[in-house]
Amino acid sequence: MQLNLDITRVIKAPRGAKLHCFAPLVALCCLAAAVPMASAADDAAASALDPAAISQLTSRAIEFLGTAQTTEGAFSPQAGPAVTALVTAGILKSGRSADDPLVARSLKYLQTYVHEDGGIYKPDSTHKNYETCIAMVAFAAANKDGRFDKLLAAADRYVKGLQWDEGEDQAPSNENYGGAGYGSKKRPDLSNTSFLLDALRAAGNGPNDPAVQKALIFVSRCQNLESEHNTTKFAAKNPDGGFYYTVAAGGASMAGETPEGGLRSYGSMTYSGLKSMIFAGLGPEDPRVKAAFDWCSKHYDLTSNPGMGEAGLFYYYHTFAKALDAMGVGEIKAADGSEHDWRAELVAELAKRQQANGAWVNTSDRWMEGDPNLVTGYVLLTLNYCRGK
After folding, report:
1. What pTM was estimated for this model as a whole?
2. Cα–Cα 20 to 30 A to 217, which of 181, 280, 321, 355?
3. Domain annotation covers residue 346
4. What is the DSSP code string of 25-84?
């Protein structure tokens, strides 16, 4: 099998990491004489991550969240179930059980938003897909004993029903096809489609599930890459391999447009797109994966959301870590040729940004990142991916 991914950009993952669909790279590295054996420097980089540092950051964060939770079990209840679900997922993935009092209160609170149609949302919500998908991830993380099987099955049917497909009279050739949106904008976007794929995966759907493959069609059309999978008007205008917010309804990028009328790629959406392609079963030989990873390598940055600055920085950290963890990549080579142990460097960056009370908050409040509960939830999820497998 031919591998189109530049293996000089993929250094060995930390010990014990599972490479999933990138397993062919391991075999290639073992068989190709031109590829050097792991050096002492590689070993030093792989051991640079201090698990104790992650535990300390996590403990302080959960201590903060314990003071921020309402008596009903909510975090930022004005946001409905979304922030509570994201925080709860972060706490669960940090090692707390579903019966931990902090978690149990939140799960009980989230259950008050479960509707007969299977959705998990505020009654007057215009963000039903977003809220339900995040809640599904939280309930799945708490479902080790099967207590939420029925809830998850109903929610799974619900979000699949919201997906833009034949049920909404959308043909596969339509730019909306396969995507998911908030609902209020009357069109899908890559962020919500990424949350949909997270939820489908959490509910047990594999890469070959029809809803997952439909989502991949939409994701591919949000990439700045002209191919048989993307023949949209934007595909060739800015062919850098990165991703933008949506191809639907005339297209949009939160990073703006190029002088040629293309849609600028930016960090959080590019990592969302890359992660989504991996979850949908694409491997390193796929040109879409290679182009996306090349963009990530060229724009490696932990001080800002590339293309967006401080805006959406912690959402970016979350998608950055989730995508690279899904790929099984331990190190990444930047545009200047420097090699980076992204896990160790990200943990160090997050440590610098943690506040005295244990929370994180963005200096930019765009996309609700002025809310320390939301941002601390993002960081807990991010730290989980930094632990490796």
Report:
1. 0.87
2. 321
3. yes
4. HHHHHHH-TTSPPPPHHHHHHHT---HHHHHHHHHHHHHHHHHH--TTS-SSGGGTHHHH
